[in-house]
Design goal:
The chain is mainly beta. The chain has helices spanning about 15-20, 30-45; strands spanning about 1-10, 50-55, 60-70, 75-80, 90-100, 105-110, 115-125, 135-140. The strands form 2 sheets. The protein has a 5-stranded antiparallel β-sheet with strand order 4-5-6-7-8, with no helix packed on it. A 3-stranded mixed β-sheet has the order 1-3-2, covered by helices on one side.
Amino acid sequence: MISEIVIQDNKRTKTGYITSLIDLKVGQSLDSLTLKSDVLRLKREAGIAHAYYQVHLTDQGYKIVYGVEENFTIIPSFNFYTTNDDEVAYRIGIAEFNALGRGISIGGHYLRDIYDSYGAGIRAPYLFNKHIGLAVNYQT
């Protein structure tokens, strides 16, 4: 029987968010397949570089410790190239892949080409629950 679940080494990612992603709950029996699927789900998050688990036997049952190592999630971008008319064009942007510590991606870019354009997007893959999210993009 699982008596305690601990999340450790998370700095920017919220503990409540990580807890909402894992299937294992206090009071359940210990299941190694669930532990492995939880760690795999955590590793697939953009803000998490590596995840692992530890199982400790206590007097009350099993204590599960999930450990995470986080990625640097603010990524700038800059591209330049030439157009068909031999003019220089560029695109500059920035993206944050773990906004608010909840796995929300926010980004924007500006493109200077024959026509100026810009775009912005937000993606919250786990906005409603761990299976349903929302993404909105705007581009001119």
